[in-house]
């Protein structure tokens, strides 16, 4: 699915960007203005955004209106009047309006205001979906937003990571000869633990790039991927039901301090042992999952079922209760964040 369509239908970032609309108010343009601008069919009965600072000047230029419209749909690509705004922008400035939007977004990124940068890059993508610079810059802004987020919740980081990944995947298709697309896509895969995709993507970067320093950096990373690639092979064995092969590979890392604090290693080992009917070993592994990921409800569910099957009712009920506590806490945290975002908007 093209990125502009994803923005319209599966927007991951709307909740974090729409608070930026708090300084905008909406009003309809006069009939005389619509007639003079030749946009009656597009904009009659359509409220347009005015920034509070715009109202003080008591003027409304075509550029100001188009910029405000772009900002609104960049915040919320499913906005009710999105198509009217896009039609207005195209009629008055054409798809080239995406270029100044990217330039303004880059200015925000330089100031480390990555959310505003994301908004403008998203708007540029909606104005001209075929503009590769907008896609690349949006990916960079998403990457920088989560990389610089010290106190952000896990959901924020996860959503921005997923958005960056989608951007760089599309960018490498739009600009297959640009090495930097593969550079950032490789890191996006690496951050998700997709080591084979990381290797293949970095291979493409090394094939294309002439950046000596970056080539050395990526080559060094490639050398470190050998063991993670084996672990990924082991997890794929488990996922495909080849439990014995998965255990053979993954169990080698149980005492390896480089990898044995990685909770998925223990989760996949536990899954493999359970698949082979070895409940004791499965329990041992899922307990290790909770050692490194204490709120992991999937591991708790496994332990609840395993203890029940072993006739240890009290332990089974213990994990059933823990699951309830963790999920209630998670829902309370989500509700608190929703309220905070709502207060920001009001």
UniProtKB/TrEMBL annotation:
SUPFAM superfamilies: TPR-like (SSF48452). Keywords: Repeat, TPR repeat. Transmembrane segments: none annotated. PROSITE patterns: TPR. TPR repeats lie at residues 263-296. It comes from the Bacteria. This is Tetratricopeptide repeat-containing protein. It comes from Eubacterium pyruvativorans. The lineage of its organism: Bacteria, Bacillati, Bacillota, Clostridia, Eubacteriales.
